[in-house]
Write the structure tokens for this entry.
Amino acid sequence: MLYFIGLGLFSEDDISLKGFNALRDVDVVYAEFYTAKLMGGNIDNLIDKIDAPFIRLKREDVEDSNIILDDAMVKDVAFVTAGDPLMATTHTELYVEACRKGIETKIIHASSIFSAAPGLSGLQAYKFGKTTTVPFPDDNFFPHSPYDVIKSNMDMGLHTLVLLDIQAHIDRYMTINQALDYLSKVENQRGESVFPSDKIVVGIAQAGSDKPVVKGGRVSDLLDYDFGSPLHCLIVPGDLHFIEAEALIALADISENLLENYL
Amino acid sequence: MLYFIGLGLFSEDDISLKGFNALRDVDVVYAEFYTAKLMGGNIDNLIDKIDAPFIRLKREDVEDSNIILDDAMVKDVAFVTAGDPLMATTHTELYVEACRKGIETKIIHASSIFSAAPGLSGLQAYKFGKTTTVPFPDDNFFPHSPYDVIKSNMDMGLHTLVLLDIQAHIDRYMTINQALDYLSKVENQRGESVFPSDKIVVGIAQAGSDKPVVKGGRVSDLLDYDFGSPLHCLIVPGDLHFIEAEALIALADISENLLENYL
């Protein structure tokens, strides 16, 4: 049996009761913390309550899935990840391989930024378009795809959830400020008024914690705003229903005059 | 203090450890089970472990939010809902009102169909466009909006998560079959080849349970397929990466020849 168990958004107590009970029953736990990891709490509090060995995988261990699958043929194995399971391609591939080999599987879901971010912002989840990710740029890598996705969603009046690059294996997490800078640079190159300095955006940090930071405003207002520790993400609102505009004022501390067109 | 606590997707053990611990600490629990409710397990198993009174709200109780807010001014109150909190407009409005009144809030997230459905299907979450909902039609109410959303997403190659109407207060839950029939009728009226009978779709039922049903195929193959008990939802795939096509074959039991263009 192979369990895919989500640890949820932030700390070791974001796992579900179902997931926790499964972890206490399995023979071995494999944890994948390089695509994402819990930024709050202390995972050792969870590990201490589990009898089974808790093995932290390296990237190559998941990509060579046989280690996990061979074990799951003969034992009860849990594969745990931050967030909801099966959001990353490598996890889906492991799930597909397990099904192909006839290994019984159970998926135990958990909280995810895909629903948490809309909820925290007060924007309606069904008004979000395609999600995009801003990657860490380098000399030969500066894709405009996040800008294109925002533009395409805007054209349809839709909000965009913008995830920010995570390189957990080297403890490098993109900040909202870096993402705003990235998208402003694309705007400077493209000049299509998708991401001007007076664009209203909402930054969300530490989603899932007791005190998530939800702060909106113009890009120029937030370029230097301190959102605190990772993980960060960004929402670029599309057209706003007045109830959404009122929510942004109350929840994201946006001043009323910036949204007066929607009220 | 007002906690918004998600109960997660399916059964009473889908709540997070954090949410469970909060429920044991609060003075009163208000449960909103008319926009959605847990279809599996037994909520009484959770209620039995909580000392605080567990009050099931009627629709008018949430819309007149003062009952909850007045209590939260002087006590520790939990507002619990199925899924992730703040996905429904009425919940967001309660959150906004609480913030306006200066009531301290904590949001405790949980699993949601918004991430679970992509995960279970094997399709990549970031390739989904806007979500839509198929409502129960009546004589004067047969909106084409779900069809329009699918069409718009398709034009951009994106997948569509189609949620199905829930009227939990009268225990009425739309089935995948009803949704397929609805969308086929729109296709007959509009004839824009958005939802022809050979369109490939994926039905998902009992997400969050130990044995969710994930079954794909042509619309004509699934119109009479028995997906079992609610809740149901539907995914209309857009363009498929070959890895997604392979995932659909393994996870959604779609025959290879239907997807050969993508392999």
User: Anything to note?
Assistant: The radius of gyration of chain B is 20 Å. Chain B touches chain A through 61 residues (CB under 8 Å).
